[in-house]
Specification:
rod-shaped; DNA-binding transcription factor activity; BudR_PBP2; HTH-type transcriptional regulator BenM; alpha/beta; single chain; Arc Repressor Mutant, subunit A; DNA binding; D-Maltodextrin-Binding Protein, domain 2
Length: 309
């Protein structure tokens, strides 16, 4: 049986179910003589007679009846397997691991992309992993994570990257800081932070944002006094609330209502922006990964100028 062509089994099923060569040929979309010939080929391969040829039709022999259920099961299993492969290829099934940094999760873009993906591919097993930008880049490069939303400004060799949005940066002050205490100050120039103790997201974890902040300060004519480096971006806000200094964070972190932290817009330089990038391995992608990337592009292109409030 292992050598029997599946096409022959499909021909056999059609004839068995129609009990007539002409009707089976019409169902299959072929002519009757070739179908009759293929049935004889199958019988020769199996070494049995599958049908009694009657004046007005075809009747299964005992051997034919024995083959019928097995043939149906074989064809059903093959069709199911083919359908499963196609669904995985089209991103409708399978498994997808999506990584994101802690700060990325606070921008509505990321949960929106994931929600739309889930709606379009409910049978994909989705795994979400939060980590630092550095760890996510490494995991994507090694194939442990399929796609990831990161804050870094560059990708590792063998990893593709696209910017999905850029948002403004905010200065986060302790609530009792003289610059904001008792006032409703909403804007500040970066140069006004020259004498402040800065708390930044650890460079190893997020070199893109770290280097952008240092470069922007240098362009404003000062070298920042970095007194603390936090392991996670959200940790920087805890350090700010504790009065250890001032931090610069993406505007979407304003949604983190930490008591003791006051956010102020940085008006200059305007080039100081926090990118949110999507990365994936430069290799053949699963259908689910392609679907999520396409969804991110659609949402990005639908509002190209959108930034966090």
């Amino acid at each position: 049986m292992a050598s029997v062509d599946l096409r022959l089994l499909r021909y056999f099923l059609a004839v068995a179910e129609e009990s007539h060569l002409t009707k089976a040929a019409a169902r299959l979309g072929i002519r009757q003589p070739p179908l009759s010939q293929q049935i004889r080929v199958l019988e020769a391969e199996l070494g049995v007679t599958l049908f009694h040829r009657l004046p007005r039709g075809m009747e299964l022999t005992e051997s034919g009846r024995a083959l019928l259920d097995d043939a149906r099961n074989i064809i059903a299993m093959v069709d199911q397997a083919v359908d499963g492969v196609r669904r995985v290829s089209q991103g409708e099934a399978g498994r997808l691991t999506v990584g994101f940094t802690g700060s990325a999760a606070f921008h509505p873009f990321v949960p929106s992309v994931i929600r739309r993906f889930r709606e379009s591919a409910p049978h994909v097993h989705l795994v979400l992993e939060e980590s630092s930008t550095g760890e996510l880049r490494e995991a994507v490069a090694e194939g442990r994570i399929d796609v990831a939303f990161i804050r870094g400004a560059h990708a590792d060799p063998g990893v593709q990257m696209e910017t999905v949005l850029e948002e403004a940066m905010l200065a986060a002050f302790p609530a009792d800081h003289p610059a904001v205490k008792g006032r409703t100050r909403k804007r500040i120039a970066l140069s006004e932070l020259a004498d402040e103790s800065l708390i930044l997201y650890r460079r190893h974890s997020g070199p893109g944002l770290y280097d952008a902040i240092i470069a922007a300060c240098s362009a404003e004519g000062f070298s920042p006094r970095v007194t603390q480096e936090a392991p996670r971006m959200l940790s920087t806000l805890s350090f700010v609330a504790a009065g250890l200094g001032v931090s610069l964070v993406p505007a979407s972190l304003r949604r983190v209502n930490i008591e003791g932290v006051v956010y102020v817009s940085v008006t200059h330089p305007k080039a100081l922006r926090a990118p949110l990038n999507l990365i994936w391995r430069d290799a053949p992608l699963s259908g689910a990964a392609r679907k999520l990337i396409d969804e991110a592009r659609r949402q990005r292109d639908a509002s190209p100028a959108a930034e966090s409030q």
